Amino acid sequence: MWRFAIPLLVVIALVAAFGRALFLDPGKVPSPLIGEPVPEFSLPGLYEPEKNFSSDDLKGHISLVNVFGTWCPGCHEEHDLLMAWSQSQDVPIYGFNLRDERDAAINWLNRDGNPYAKIGFDPGGETSIDWGIYGAPETFLIDAEGRIRLKHIGPMTEAVLREKIIPAIEMLQAEMLREEQS
User: Between β-strands 116-122 and 93-98, what pairing exists: parallel, antiparallel or unpaired?
Assistant: First the structure.
């Protein structure tokens, strides 16, 4: 009897696990870095390799960090939205150019526009590993103290901005205002 019950229980458990996985949102991968300081880094600039983009650039103001590559279809999808954001918002976007060719990235940004205040060039993806980056595009919201407050995996959309990013920025701005007043 037990000879048949154990395999049956294993099959039932596997079916339940796989069935649950069908309903998970791949864009909601939890990050252990939420609430933590950004990992220390210093990357050569994309346009000017001698001018580094580092963790120090993310302190003192709220900012977004967007991971992109010319090889990434989702990065091309979100590019117009990032361009519009960079021209209409006070919150700057910084870029990690991930596993890319420098010339390809420069040509793309020169042709389609550059929404980034600064861009770090991470051709091997070493810095991206420290950030827990799985691929591109990914976007992080960084508070004025240089802590990661939010991570979005996948292309940025109007809905993501409206429902996730902007409310989080407004919350951070309100926190900063309360701290200044006290």
Answer: parallel
